Amino acid sequence: MREPKPQEDLQAIIDDIYLELTPRLGEGKVADYIPQLARVDARHFGMAIVTTGGEVYCVGDAEMPFSIQSISKVFTLTLALGKHGENIWNRVGREPSGSAFNSIVQLEHEGGKPRNPFINAGAIRISDLILAGHTPKELIGEIVRFVRYLADDENIVIDHEVARSETATGYRNIALANFMRSFGRLDHPVEHVLGVYFHHCALAMTCSQLAKAGLFLAAGGTNPLTGHSVVSRQRARRINALMLTCGHYDGSGDFAYRVGLPGKSGVGGGIMAVAPGKASIAVWSPGLNDYGNSLLGSLALEMLAARTGWSVFGP
Ligand code: GLN
Fold first, then answer.
1. Among 30, 32, 37, 70, which is best to mutate for testing ligand 1, by the most ligand atoms less than 8 A from CB?
2. CATH code for the domain of 116
3. Residue finishing a domain among 201, 235, 251
4. pLDDT tens, position by position, 206-221
């Protein structure tokens, strides 16, 4: 890797990263638990950066929609904080789990209270919390509208085939939900809660839409492109803190060490990352590492952080 040159033009930096990674496209293992994800070409690669000043930089397949999967958990957490405030922490923890995203062991030890909102159990609990007063269908509609509002893009939709497939094969998530329910930790029927969870995971977005949707987190809670105030400055910082400590499951420490920015991954191969005060970044490369995080996506962000000097840990 070259020495970082913080002043370098961002477009040149991402063009360069793409070029350097091109021989490696296809590395990693594409998620294969549902056919809709298994059939995605592993050689896709896209990256988008939206700066707090409103400049947009894209490379590769940045305009191709992909399944955002667990990245959606950032948006449902934001909604949950909006509806219930800090009370959500009575229901879900905010500590890194150190275990796989779909692990069940910790749940038993901890009485059915999920470690954090980004592991599957925690996100299922968040879906349950925001279901209060809604039908699943209404809430799914509200989530889609919220994400469209964040990205300022009415074209964002749910891939219903993905949602159906997740529902048909989601044995592990069904187990997690039933397990929490057995501890009295879910307020709504398992089918309703999972209906919401599977649908928000099935949101399809492009890197540029995702980078725009995450921009409020890079800019103190307000999207500078639209002027929409989404959350307070303190809440934006706190969501970033959770992304840094829990956003990559048991690979969160490694991501923080290598990239040094808050980020949230999804099993579709996407990562949304935040350089506070600077930019929001989305990257997509479907091949995953052993923790279920995008292999080349993490590497691309590591290269970007090194070359821009962006880090939450120091100048
Ligand atoms: N829908 C996926 C699941 O529940 C999300 C997991 C992920 O993106 N890590 O298994």
1. 70
2. 3.40.710.10
3. 201
4. 999 999 999 999 999 9
Evaluate whether residue 89 is within a structural domain.
yes
pLDDT tens across 160-216, in order? 999 999 999 999 999 999 999 999 999 999 999 999 999 999 999 999 999 999 999
Q: In the predicted model, is pLDDT for residue 5 greater than 80? A: no
pLDDT band at residue 13 using 50, 70 and 90 as cut-offs: very high
Cite the active site residues: 70, 73, 197, 249, 267
| Residue labelled with tokens 């479907």 | 286
- Confidence category of residue 8, pLDDT binned at 50, 70, 90: low
Is residue 196 classed as helix, strand or coil in its secondary structure? helix
Please work out whether the CB of residue 292 comes within 6 Å of at least one atom of ligand 1: yes
Domain containing 247 equals 7-66+206-308
Mutate to test the pocket of ligand 1, among 267, 289, 291, 298 (most ligand atoms within 8 A of CB): 267
Task: Indicate if the pLDDT at residue 70 is higher than 90.
Answer: yes
* Residue 50: inside a domain: yes
Bridge partners of 203, per DSSP, are: 158
Please report the atom of ligand 1 found closest to the CA of residue 33: 10
Long-range CB contacts (within 8 A, 24+) of 151-155: 151/205, 151/209, 151/210, 151/212, 151/213, 152/212, 152/223, 152/225, 152/226, 152/228, 153/209, 153/212, 155/209
Query: Both 223 and 193 in a single domain?
Result: no
Measured from the CB, is residue 119 less than 6 Å from ligand 1? no
Q: Verify whether ligand 1 is closer than 6 Å to residue 284 (CB atom).
A: no
Instruction: For residue 314, tell me if it sits in a domain.
Output: no
Residues 193 and 78 in one domain: yes
- pLDDT for the residue numbered 168: 95
